[in-house]
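Protein modeling request. Please complete all fields; requests missing the sequence field cannot be processed.
Requester role: graduate student
Desired output: 3D structure, token encoding
Chains: 1
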Amino acid sequence: MKPVETMKVLLASVIAVVVMVGIARFSYTPMIPEMVGALGLSASVVGMLATVNYAGYLTGALLITRISDLGLKVQLYQLGLVVAVISTILMGYTTNVWLWFILRFISGLSTSAGMLLGAGLLMSWLIKNNQKAELGVFFSGIGLGIVLTAVVAELIKDSFTWDAQWVVYGLVALVLLVPAWRWMPDYRACALPQTAGNGAGSERSRFIRLLQLAYFCAGVGYVVTATFLVAIAEAMPQLSGHGWLIWLIVGLAATPACWLWDVFSRRWGQWLALYLAYTLNAVSILMLIISTEMASVILSAVIYGASFIGIVSMMLAMVGRVFPENPSRPMSRLTFSYGIAQMLAPAVVGYLADVEGNYTNGLWLTLIVMALGVVMLHLARKME
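Delivered output (384 residues):
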């Protein structure tokens, strides 16, 4: 395999993640203050818009567990790219909350295609072409997407109304779609033979169920901060108007972290790396509770960006290596749990914020769930 061809495949995968995850999903985070300021949305509506997006992601993950045909996977992956662009643009053409719900749900479907089908197809391609079966580079697209949405948010916030901003995000996604599509390899040629007998499959299934519980907890830790971090920052007097900067810092921390976690995992072991990533994610949440100083919030954003992306990358790569014949399916099983967390947590925390006027108790609840996640992770390690 020529290095140039490998580089194109990796770039195509990363750019696709930027489109289907970075823009289709994460553009909503810096848009929250814009839409709240212009339309007066309540915290409950903000949370519900996040919830239906994660419901779409959850639905997509569930559907992917039922798909084994490689050709269909490739078609859905390509469809996800197109849907990500269209659903983002159309957000700017309505103020009907129910239409927003539908569009964010569809956007969630495209995100599941980008994350799960994309990761599974790339994993198969890497194994087929004797490359390292790691997904750190792939998931760096999430961090790059966060950086992109934060930078675009700052560039357009004074020149465009909230609805025009959605259109701008969609047009940026359209431009990026071109290289993602052109450099995409023929994934249909990457099918691998089935492996493992019934006994091994049953044992691996029990192992993955424990990982699902651990990943559910990680999903809560991820989504609460992803949804409300900018709003939390904007509510602080010293950070008012700087929410986009906090989101940019998250992306800058996440982008190289995937690769660094791969290096750490190779040297010290995947389990120690996962323990550390879970612990750091919990620390980032705790810092938002105990301090409202700008330095503390910035450090929390750095730790959060570096830790959540490591959890996602290492967990999905782990099950991809366990099931090399069809990596998208176990990845989807884990993500189904992650998706349930993403669907429930924003609504719960948004409700608590409406009732209490702050995010403190919602963050404490999130911290407790992350602690339970470490326990589930340890039980999964013992099972292995």
